[in-house]
Amino acid sequence: MLGCAIYNSGEISDNMAVIIDGKQLSAQVVQEVAVETRAFVEEFGFQPGLAVVLVGEDPASQVYVRNKVKRATEAGLHSIEYKLPVHTDQVTLNALVDKLNNDPKVHGVLVQLPLPKQLNEEDIIAVINPEKDVDGFHPINVGRLSSGQGMLIPCTPLGCLMMLERVLGNLSGKNAVVIGRSNIVGKPMAALLLKANCTVTIVHSRTQNIEAICSGADIVVAAAGQPQMVKSSWIKPGATVIDVGINAVECDGKRKLVGDVDYTDVEPVAGAITPVPGGVGPMTIACLMKNTLIAARAQMNK
Ligand code: NDP
């Protein structure tokens, strides 16, 4: 039986599965951003600003926004939180985003998704100034990423890529399978892996025989939103497994979070694996801080 090690120093032991500690890595990224933010403040005399807009009272979104604001403070950024009532209409939300687009103290604008039913997510994403689009969802930033010139890259796939590079170094030539083709995770993840010279396969709900496709991969990124779908038989021994999924399930009468990967089953086979929670989630938030600083620098250097 293989042992298990926490990845925290860049050292990987030959015969142990490595647990990729997203909490620790994200703390490191936030610290790095904090150092660069201090240099920014010295140069320009003010902090980069991040505006986070929350519409409604979805409990998960409230937690995400709280964590984002907390990390922003740790990174030395100026964060401004806007809370709008659940019945807010599109005109009001567009007007707020427009105001933030034109505020020179705001360098990053994030509208927390999902939005209440009466609001159109695509419309609001299109209203955000692409230069301030720190989520990287605006069609212009999507286009830039797919043409290999992305600057503001969606935070979750960016965090996954950083974890992969920390564990594997150069990804060139690796076979990578991405499970899921959403605009916010699957597609940008595949674009980033392609840019890193991986051979990339995307699988989705209509794909035949996913298990066989995954079992040939050096890297599997699971982003399907299906609790514990990925089993050990899907994974090539020694492969690196990144679990993006966050699924709330009932277990012994209690609610708990699990990923898209059956962690207990897969961990003994994988070479490296992210836990849920404590893997991709914290890295997503750290990458938001990184993107805010990148956006602020780009705006100031214009
Ligand atoms: P979506 O629901 O938008 O997309 C899910 C994708 O998975 C779709 O492409 C779907 O295929 C595919 N899929 C669904 N079921 C299967 C299946 N049985 N086999 C193969 N493919 C399947 O989800 P998101 O991309 O937004 O999120 C994915 C997961 O990641 C969720 O659990 C979400 O909570 C989590 N997440 C975590 C984040 C983090 O920070 N850790 C951030 C964002 C998301 P099809 O297109 O054919 O329908």
List keywords for this structure.
disordered N terminus; Rossmann fold; 3-stranded parallel β-sheet; 7-stranded parallel β-sheet; 12 strands; alpha/beta
Summed up:
With 302 residues, the chain is an alpha/beta fold.
Q: How is the biggest beta sheet arranged?
A: 7 strands, parallel
Query: In total, how many domains does the architecture comprise?
Result: 2
Number of helices: 10
- Quickly give the CATH architecture of the largest domain: 3-Layer(aba) Sandwich
What small molecules accompany the polymer chains? NADPH dihydro-nicotinamide-adenine-dinucleotide phosphate
CATH topology of the largest domain: Rossmann fold
Chain-averaged pLDDT: 94
Q: What are the low-pLDDT stretches, counting only 5+ consecutive residues below 50?
A: 1-13
- The span between the termini is 56 Å
CATH uppermost class of the largest domain: Alpha Beta
Order of helices and strands: EEHEHEHEHHHEHEHEEEEHEH
Number of strands: 12
Strand content: 15-25%
Radius of gyration: 19 Å
Helix content: 25-40%
Strand order of the largest sheet: 1-2-12-9-8-6-7
Categorize the overall geometry.
Answer: globular
